[in-house]
Amino acid sequence: MSDAFERAVFFDLDHTLLTFETAYATVLREVTERQLGGGDEAFEVTYSDRFLELLGDHAEEPYRRAFEHALAAHDYADAVASVDALVETLREREVAGVAPSPGVERALAELRDRGYGVGVLTNGVPGFQLAKLRGHDLDAYVDASVVSYEAGAHKPDPAPFALAAERLPADEYVMIGDSYEADVAGAREAGWRGIHYAPGGDSPGSDPLASFDDLLDRLE
Q: Which residues are bridge partners to 103 per DSSP?
């Protein structure tokens, strides 16, 4: 393959490159407290349930539509907060609630030094996922990124893997992620090597990756 890397290593984002330091329920509570004048558990549950439905269906603007649904369902028609404010506050709080996983920067820099292509392949919506990547300066190490909404399907569907290969040509592909089904099984189905990132946990497959320090040895 001409003008291609010998090897491209793609990473999942949430719970792989980034670790959640604040529980998502707490993030959402911070949003409702700021924008609605107080926490509202019923509103938060309605929002979350609708958002997951929309995300699973690959619907347009899932954050906005889920907030619109929850506002209408819980009589917040006259809420001071606009839908735009709710979405933007959630994005800000999601970025603030995550941090690079231990050893990530060093591992990414070493992969680049070895001449590998480095990519991000994550399920989600570009505006949110890329904000987290950029908000923690990890985009400086990344040659290409693919968010599942751009591919029209979520991992483990082959479409995101195909788009990733199109954006970052290579002779060999490796996918590293915390979801065995989406990241490992999906990668293998696409003809890639899949590595399960499971620090401190078990893996349904053999030889899980326990840390990013181990990754450097694994890819020798």
A: none
